[in-house]
């Protein structure tokens, strides 16, 4: 049995009841070491298998191998396990290896939802998620999505917006979206959502400061109706108020 | 003080700790009557203000008027309050009326995330949310978003896919997306996510049965890499497995 659990943005308060129950029920907890730290309370009496970044396939295969022995395993992802998390990889491996291991995906609050609550209500209308990581997705595909999403006037949430190895991606993304996003479009930035050192910053498309952004930051770009009021970013749904 | 709370798709297990604490802390609970039923356990000793569909502005104004008297009010939305929920409307009213009432948006698991966990892992790559309700959004805007989202090869999650009053919208949406979505593209349908009568159905774009869908259904259309395996719908992230 494998639980694939989204633990939310990183504080206990934003975990679901089901995520907590599943971690309690598991005998072995498998995860990226940074995320294991976030659930320390739940792993005290458990066997823990943790490893570093870019070891996702090994980590999921480890979880599967342990589950094969009959143990209940919890694989944890931050946010939601089904959004750029481990749910897909676990299911891909299990289906390709034609294994008969029950898998339960336990949903969680993803970073865009956590960040939106901190900013006010920026994703009240149609929105999309785009990851700027080109480790597994060709940059041309990312560019195309950015351009069409901006043309469609979606609110756009950027995941993995900027790492040390590709610090220029975010600025390039803004250049592409700039064909359709006006300079006055509100942009919300939240670093370390739900964690102790959470930081929030609201600016506009043409005053965007890329240096504020790293891999633990969520960037949300508004649509044509989004407005800023004091320290809030609000996208109207369309009610007459 | 107003809490705007996303209670998740509708079962206690998918509520966050923070949602439960906020409901417990509130003196008055305000919500659409169907959602009030979902949180019966938490409203027993509280004042409850509930009303029907399309009364969103009245409901939010009621909550604000009660909060003005100094009471702690919880406005509840199903899913996440910041996604087609009440967070935006509460903040719009408060900012337009220049009131000084503290608002805390409490994030929740939105329907697409809940449905995705039931289907397997369909939203593992870039995706978007589009509401097919044209009550407050011109249909031309919805059409444009559908076309561009399909062209961008997003996984597409449809909110408010089909009501009695506009039963043809979903078929029209499929016609539009069909310019770019292949007939073999997997489509996942989940009705009443997280509730007792939850139903799940997986088909392909060209075998879609629109009659299965109503307003409490989530429809998720895959991207070019999405595949079906037994009763699972999986969108690979791009790992080599």
TrEMBL record, chains A, B:
<keyword id="KW-0808">Transferase</keyword>
<comment type="pathway">
    <text>Cofactor biosynthesis; adenosylcobalamin biosynthesis.</text>
</comment>
<dbReference type="InterPro" id="IPR014776">
    <property type="entry name" value="4pyrrole_Mease_sub2"/>
</dbReference>
<keyword id="KW-0169">Cobalamin biosynthesis</keyword>
<dbReference type="InterPro" id="IPR000878">
    <property type="entry name" value="4pyrrol_Mease"/>
</dbReference>
<dbReference type="InterPro" id="IPR051810">
    <property type="entry name" value="Precorrin_MeTrfase"/>
</dbReference>
<dbReference type="GO" id="GO:0032259">
    <property type="term" value="P:methylation"/>
</dbReference>
<keyword id="KW-0489">Methyltransferase</keyword>
<feature type="domain" description="Tetrapyrrole methylase">
    <location>
        <begin position="1"/>
        <end position="207"/>
    </location>
</feature>
<dbReference type="InterPro" id="IPR035996">
    <property type="entry name" value="4pyrrol_Methylase_sf"/>
</dbReference>
<dbReference type="InterPro" id="IPR014777">
    <property type="entry name" value="4pyrrole_Mease_sub1"/>
</dbReference>
<dbReference type="GO" id="GO:0030789">
    <property type="term" value="F:precorrin-3B C17-methyltransferase activity"/>
</dbReference>
<keyword id="KW-0949">S-adenosyl-L-methionine</keyword>
<dbReference type="Pfam" id="PF00590">
    <property type="entry name" value="TP_methylase"/>
</dbReference>
<dbReference type="InterPro" id="IPR006363">
    <property type="entry name" value="Cbl_synth_CobJ/CibH_dom"/>
</dbReference>
<protein>
    <submittedName>
        <fullName>Precorrin-3B C(17)-methyltransferase</fullName>
        <ecNumber>2.1.1.131</ecNumber>
    </submittedName>
</protein>
């Amino acid at each position: 049995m494998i639980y694939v659990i989204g633990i939310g943005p990183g504080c206990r308060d934003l975990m679901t009841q089901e995520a907590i129950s599943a971690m309690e029920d598991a005998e072995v907890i498998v995860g990226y070491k940074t995320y294991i730290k976030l659930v320390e309370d739940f792993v005290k009496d458990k066997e823990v298998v943790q490893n570093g970044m870019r070891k996702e396939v090994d980590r999921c295969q480890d979880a599967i191998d342990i589950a094969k022995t009959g143990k209940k395993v919890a694989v944890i992802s931050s946010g939601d396990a089904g959004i750029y998390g481990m749910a897909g990889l676990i299911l891909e491996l299990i289906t390709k290896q034609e294994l008969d291991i029950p898998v339960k995906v336990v949903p969680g609050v993803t970073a865009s939802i956590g960040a939106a609550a901190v900013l006010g209500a920026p994703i009240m209308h149609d929105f999309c998620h785009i990851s700027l990581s080109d480790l597994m997705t060709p940059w041309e595909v990312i560019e195309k999505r950015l351009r069409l999403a901006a043309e469609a006037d979606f609110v756009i949430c950027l995941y993995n917006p900027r790492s040390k190895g590709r610090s220029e991606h975010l600025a390039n993304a803004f250049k592409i979206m700039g064909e359709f996003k006006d300079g006055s479009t509100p942009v919300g930035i939240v670093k370390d959502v739900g964690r102790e050192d959470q930081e929030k910053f609201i600016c506009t498309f043409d005053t965007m400061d890329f240096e504020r952004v790293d891999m633990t930051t969520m960037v949300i770009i508004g649509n044509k109706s989004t407005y800023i009021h004091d320290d809030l970013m609000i996208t109207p749904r369309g009610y007459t108020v």
